[in-house]
Amino acid sequence: MTEERLLALQEVSFAYEGEGGQKETVLNRINLDIHKGAFVSVLGHNGSGKSTLAKLMNALLLPKEGTVLVTGIDTRDGELIWEVRRHVGMVFQNPDNQIVGATVEDDVAFGLENMGTDPAEMRTRIRESLQAVGMEAHLYDQPHRLSGGQKQRVAIAGIMAMRPSVLILDEATAMLDPMGRREVLNLARRLNREEGITVVNITHFPEEAVFSDRVIVMRAGQVEWDGTAAEVFADPDRLQALGLDVPFAVRVRHALAAEGVSLPFILHQEELVEHLCKLLLKR
Ligand SMILES: Nc1ncnc2c1ncn2[C@@H]1O[C@H](COP(=O)(O)OP(=O)(O)O)[C@@H](O)[C@H]1O
Ligand SMILES: [Mg+2]
């Protein structure tokens, strides 16, 4: 695979301005490259700067220092700001705050209308993107009547209709029930695999991160750790010291090791079950 750089942050710092004009640095000299086709998870304690990082990636915020490049476009280039936002779609935590249309169709049409898409093309794209998220049967439904997971899938359809390069989920599953969480995560994984959409999944559920190509751990405005899921989750003590949860399978393996039962390194619950069954049958 050619490693095309889709998002690049170079020495990026950011500070929000306080009421008295004082500034507190919340991101401090971040360097990050995200390649096309990657599925990246971002973990980190509340307040570590994850949402600020996400907003810098689609020009909702601009860096105070350093440079953010989206497909090579500098996000400070005011003339291309809509191009940046079309490339990098973002879904937020609260599904109810993201509904803009009276029907699912209107909701998905919103971004396309703003882009001045022609009506026939718009209908095609709405249908395609609702199919991509499995919501085509809800075209004329009122969004507020849908479940949380369905609302987030409609929000993702609105983004997909714009033919983005990157989908950022900023704790998009945090307010959902387990089924809704699964729906949204599975959808993101499928869009990544089948449509080649680059995904940045900001989450505090470690189980969501075990499927990633790469896990970035933020701490106090800096990248504390950047590695594969296997690398990051191989060190549960370090994760816990950072105030982060550890995936269930990793926790169980760790606890078993303390009891003298050793299993090979595992990330997924299915693997855990498989290894435990083998172990029990051998006895
Ligand atoms: N709009 C804002 N104005 C001032 N401070 C903010 C604002 N948004 C976030 N912050 C502060 O910036 C820091 C990082 O916040 P955020 O990026 O939201 O972190 P996370 O998403 O990891 O919880 C926190 O200390 C937070 O209080
Ligand atoms: Mg946040």
From TrEMBL:
> PROSITE patterns given for it?
ABC_TRANSPORTER_1, ABC_TRANSPORTER_2
Q: Would I find ATP-binding among this entry's keywords?
A: yes
Q: Which NCBIfam families match?
A: ECF_ATPase_1, PRK13648.1
Q: This chain belongs to which protein, by name? A: ABC transporter ATP-binding protein
PANTHER family assigned: ENERGY-COUPLING FACTOR TRANSPORTER ATP-BINDING PROTEIN ECFA1 (PTHR43553:SF24), HEAVY METAL TRANSPORTER (PTHR43553)
Question: InterPro entries given for it?
Answer: AAA+_ATPase, ABC_transporter-like_ATP-bd, ABC_transporter-like_CS, ABC_transpr_CbiO/EcfA_su, ECF_ABC_transporter_ATP-bd, EcfA_1, P-loop_NTPase
- Any Pfam family hit: ABC_tran
Record's GO cellular component terms:
ATP-binding cassette (ABC) transporter complex
Q: Name one GO molecular function term.
A: ATP binding
Protein family membership: Belongs to the ABC transporter superfamily.
